[in-house]
Design brief:
This protein has 248 residues and is α/β, with parallel strands linked by helices. The protein has one domain (3-243): 3-Layer(aba) Sandwich (Rossmann fold), CATH 3.40.50. It has helices at residues 3-18, 40-53, 64-69, 99-115, 133-139, 230-243, and strands at 23-28, 57-61, 76-80, 118-122, 141-142, 154-160, 173-177, 184-185, 190-197, 200-210, 213-218. The strands form 2 sheets. The protein has a 9-stranded mixed beta sheet with strand order 2-1-3-4-11-10-9-6-7. Strands 5-8 form a two-stranded antiparallel ribbon. β9 (190-197) and β10 form a beta hairpin. α4 packs parallel to α5. The longest helix is centred in the middle third of the chain and has 17 residues, at 99-115. It starts with a helix and ends in a 5-residue tail after the last helix.
């Protein structure tokens, strides 16, 4: 049994015995969705802890096909995984996914989105699951290879904006993290947090509703220390509370 399977079994068992906890499916970067620059195992552990604190039973997977197959009955999909088209440290790119498995997973994701589910994409989640068209459509924006970029990891001065419920009671904060720039936002989104670079403002967190589903894209989260930031944690707590209302 893999670590992902063990995690799934233990959390799912607790969910069944409690009888009430909503279930979150957490996809953690590994294999073709991993890379040498992001410690996905550690950041996913931090996310799983926050999900538990928010009242979710967590099923954690290291394979996209398994995660999407587990969406039936789940309340939330969290994608903390890398870009399958990105090179590894040696410059090699992962082999393409099985088209039949991708088609099946895309159909399962579309079904979940139609019935109403929360989706949280963290950091490189904006570049992940490229084969699954339903995922990109739901996010409303993407990291575009050759266009999107980030300066060196440093202090990110996060400016909380707007009136979205996810930012309720959250003040501006500073966190050591990567700051993504020039993503392609293709659908109407509500900016929740932003940062400034060379005099221009760029989104760091946005939210949107698509049908009965709710989506939050949180571009922060390069390292586990980001999830120790009181400001980032407060923003994620608000996002998870809002996402939990999907499908209502």
């Amino acid at each position: 049994m893999s670590d992902g399977d063990a995690s799934r079994g233990s959390h799912a068992g607790r969910a069944r015995s409690a009888g009430a906890a909503p279930r979150a499916v957490l996809l953690s970067g590994a294999g073709r969705y991993g890379d040498p620059w992001h410690p996905f195992a550690e950041t996913s552990a931090a996310l799983a802890e926050m999900l538990g604190e928010a009242g979710f039973a967590v099923d954690r997977f290291d394979a996209a096909e398994a995660a999407l197959a587990a969406l039936d009955g789940a309340s939330l999909l969290v994608v903390n995984a890398g870009d399958p088209d990105g090179p590894n440290a040696e410059g090699a790119v992962a082999a393409p996914a099985d088209p039949e498995l991708v088609a099946a997973g895309d159909q399962l994701l579309r079904a979940a989105l139609e019935r109403g589910i929360g989706v949280l994409a963290t950091h490189t989640g904006a570049a992940s699951l490229r084969e699954y068209s339903a995922y990109g459509e739901a996010l409303g924006g993407r990291w575009v290879r050759g266009r999107s970029w980030h300066p060196p990891l440093d202090e990110a001065h996060v400016r909380v904006v707007g009136a979205h419920p996810a930012r309720s009671g959250v003040d501006d904060f500073v966190v050591r993290d990567e700051r993504y720039l020039d993503l392609d936002v293709t659908a109407p989104v509500e900016i929740v947090a932003e940062h400034e670079h060379d005099g221009a403002r760029h989104p760091l967190v946005w939210a949107r509703t698509t049908g009965r589903s709710r989506v939050v894209v949180d571009l922060l989260g390069h390292l586990p220390e980001s999830y120790a930031s009181p400001g980032h944690r407060a923003l994620l707590r608000g996002a998870l509370a809002w996402l939990a209302g999907a499908g209502a």
